[in-house]
TrEMBL record:
Pathway: Cofactor biosynthesis; adenosylcobalamin biosynthesis; adenosylcobalamin from cob(II)yrinate a,c-diamide: step 2/7. SUPFAM superfamilies: Cobalamin adenosyltransferase-like. Keywords: ATP-binding, Cobalamin biosynthesis, Nucleotide-binding, Transferase. Homotrimer. One of its GO terms (biological process) is cobalamin biosynthetic process. InterPro entries: CblAdoTrfase-like, CblAdoTrfase-like_sf, PduO-typ. The keyword Calcium does not apply. This is Corrinoid adenosyltransferase.
Amino acid sequence: MNLYTRTGDKGKTSIIGRRVDKDDLRVEAYGTIDELNSFIGKAMTELDQEKFQDILEDLQNIQNELFDCGGDLANVMKERHYKMTDEPIEVMEKRIDVLMDEPPLLERFILPGGSPGAATLHIARTIARRAERLTVTLFKNSEENDVPLVVGRYLNRLSDYLFAAARVANCRINVADIEYIRGAKVFKNGGRKEKD
């Protein structure tokens, strides 16, 4: 099997249902999800398997879910079945709540960094935000109503998860988060949700 096909040498690529320019907004959106997935894979190599078994399991699931998100965005067939649902979002929200109870309370904004794993998770978080923005723009510019909104919701929640996971990545190995020193104390309840 040849890895190269030469079919994209003139700036076109195939999505599910048609050929488009390689700089098409849809390609940019799912390409950014692929970039995000790669950084999550890098973060996984930087987290100790024993200390971070729960987070590594989360991230493995997230990698598969991101592949589903990319596939859903790439699908413009008239008859299409999307793989993403709201269920992974609900699971992620529960995990965020668990993770946010672990590190010290937040008082100020924090800067990306600390341990290598946390720094990479913060990179992934910012890429998730970019992927979300591109997905929203794709939805607003789509005349065919063929952009599954669940992908945007998933990416929104994922950036929150990655923030929580980055804080835990520092906390479990006793590395302090880096506070934004010019900022005032801004978080009510230490950045945690009110408990019922």
